[in-house]
């Protein structure tokens, strides 16, 4: 039997006039389509907020911020409008939201104030979180992060977003928060593609997989990364949507497929009834997050209740940078990243608008 995948071209962030369809035959299929940002059904998020998921999102954030800086310098703009244009709001106090808030505040303090002297009394960053920021981190690290973010100029607001409008967001307590730039970082959930698949799902709505990362209802199909989770019948919890999870799943599955191929099960249906080998086991190596100003958090506990090493400050920032550099795929890219960091440290960030 010949298996096929039906595909259609698509480019995120870019409109293409005539997408075309094509088919690909396969012997083994791995679904690793990732996830999409969670909006929790809140009205206006998709229309007015910018997510922190794709490269084009980063480009849009940069374009929007620099455009607002220029608009705020137009003669006749009221102080109230300047405060709105230069108010950067980040929703979501997880590692991604905290890292972005800290780096954005650092960028404003070190680079924007030099180029746009008039904005010093207007530009600000607000981080909105329903609960505690960095809830998965050690309490001491969380308190340190709160102190450092506040010190760097980030305003922390405890609240839940009810509605997003073109110029302001409304919290459940009725508070209006005007904004010029709104960044949404509240975690991820199943994408439309995952929801459309007629396969068993994990409790979180992701593609359900067994202990060997197989989709039990479909022969020769596997899934890894944010788009999948263990089926409830396995008795295993759904793993967090982290890069280290996807990376380890990828390495495990590569070994599995090589083993299957060496045993003569590489073709479609040839691995039916074959011994699956050792199941996938995930061991959490810890979490890291930068908070700007050459400071970061390193939490090497395997779980929130476990004991382990927890560091904060410049040493943690150095560890975070080093770990980040080791995860870059090629030596060429590592060199480019290191050079970029060095030039940014010496000359500051480029704030020209392209």
For the largest beta-sheet, the strand count, sense and barrel status come to: 5 strands, parallel
Q: What oligomeric state is this?
A: single chain
- Globular, elongated, flat, extended or rod-shaped: what is the shape? globular
| Residues in β-strands, percent | 15-25%
Helix amount, in percent? Answer: 25-40%
Give the termini separation: 52 Å
If helices are DSSP runs of H or I spanning 4 or more residues, what is the number of helices?
Answer: 9
Q: In total, how many beta strands?
A: 19
Low-confidence segments, given as residue ranges, are none
Radius of gyration based on Cα positions:
23 Å
Strand/helix succession: EEEEHEHHEHEHEEEEEEHEEEHEEEHH
Mean pLDDT: 91
What order do the strands of the largest sheet run in, or round the barrel if closed?
5-12-6-7-8
Structural class: alpha/beta
Enzyme class: oxidoreductase
Keywords: FAD, Flavoprotein, Membrane, Mitochondrion, Mitochondrion inner membrane, NAD, Oxidoreductase, Peroxisome
Catalytic activity: a ubiquinone + NADH + H(+) = a ubiquinol + NAD(+); a quinone + NADH + H(+) = a quinol + NAD(+)
Family: Belongs to the NADH dehydrogenase family.
